[in-house]
Structures are given as C-alpha cells and as structure tokens.
Amino acid sequence: MAGRDLPQTQVILRVSARSIHSGCLHGEAEGGTYCWTFVWQFRGGGRLDIHPSMGRALIKEPLQRFLEKNDYRLESGENYAFVVRARI
Known about the structure:
Elements: E1 9-19, E2 24-31, E3 34-41, E4 47-51, H1 56-70, E5 79-84
Antiparallel strand pairs: 1-2, 1-5, 2-3, 3-4
C-alpha cells in the first residue's frame, strides 16, 4: 500500500495547563469520534495518563511521540494538530 493510501486521522490537542516547575502538562486530545483527557509528566521518564480507557490504545503511542517531541514548545491555552496514520 502506498503512503498516500494509508488511513489518517487528524488529532486536535488542547493544552489546558502546563508547569515547567513540576514537569507536567494537562490537556485534551480529540480525533475521529473520540475525546480524551491526558496528563503528561515529562520529568522522571515521561509518564502519560489518558482517560477514558475507550480508544486509548489508538492514541497513546502517537500522542506520546508528539508530546516527547514538542513538550517544551506547547503553551497553555493553545491548540495543536498532528496526524495519526490510522482511522480513529
């Protein structure tokens, strides 16, 4: 299958709170028919908690990659988008 034929879903990420001091970022991710809240603890190994559990397996890995790459650039109150190569 060619790259352009792979299913894709755009995920919108909203950052609700960020604390560099505590190393924590809170937000929401929405893709397809799903909406999750998450807490990304980027200090101490990069722990990602996602709720609810429904659909979590679809978003956890791509969301964690996005957060690992961009965590210090993400600002509270802002929206961001990234593409997941799957149909969510």
